[in-house]
Amino acid sequence: MTETKPLNILFLCTHNSARSILAEALLNHMGQGKFKAYSAGSSPRENQKPNPMAIASLEKAGISTEGLSSKSWDVFAIPDAPQMDLVITVCDNAAGEVCPYWPGQPATAHWGYADPSEGSGTDEEKMEAFKQTLHLIKKRLEIFTSLPLRSLGKKTLENTARELANK
Q1: Domain ranges of the chain
Q2: Which side of the chain, N or C, has fewer Cβ within a 10 Å radius?
């Protein structure tokens, strides 16, 4: 990992419509060029789009939603895809699945979050669930982005990311 190249981080979830989308947008917002975040799903539905409440919660927080889309993790396993430094699952379903072979064999970690799109109640209550999930992801990413990650080897990067799962 060189000083000039940002660390490529891939956030995975099952459908790539809520948690992984929130994490991608947040890290790109907070990363100050030190990180390039991506997101994907293990099994996005046909014509899957980011959850409108995920997009609304990001916009309300002043975070760009430009370029966000739901896609299969297969797009990151092809030879000319960006090579990831770290792959983080953000839902328990994706964490338990067999991932494709990632070029470069990146470090891996799991940061579990409850699915805000599975909540019931009023639209206001559902939006609150997205806001809370965004807040939880942000807290973890604030710690992550403050660490001297560029100087870490793959194993230390992986251990550091895994330790953050307990924060």
Answers
A1: 7-157
A2: C
Output the CA–CA distances (angstroms, integers) from residue 69 to 51, 58, 61, 122, 167, in the order listed: 10, 14, 19, 26, 28
**What class has domain 7-157?**
alpha beta
Q: Which of 7, 9, 12, 13 is catalytic?
A: 13
Report if pTM > 0.85: yes
- Catalytic residue, from 56, 99, 136, 164: name it: 99
Residues of the chain with pLDDT under 50: 1-2
In the residue annotation, 99 being an active-site residue is answered as yes
Tokens of 119: 């909540």
**Strand 35-41 vs strand 107-110: parallel, antiparallel, or unpaired?**
unpaired
How many whole angstroms separate alpha carbon 34 and alpha carbon 112?
A: 23
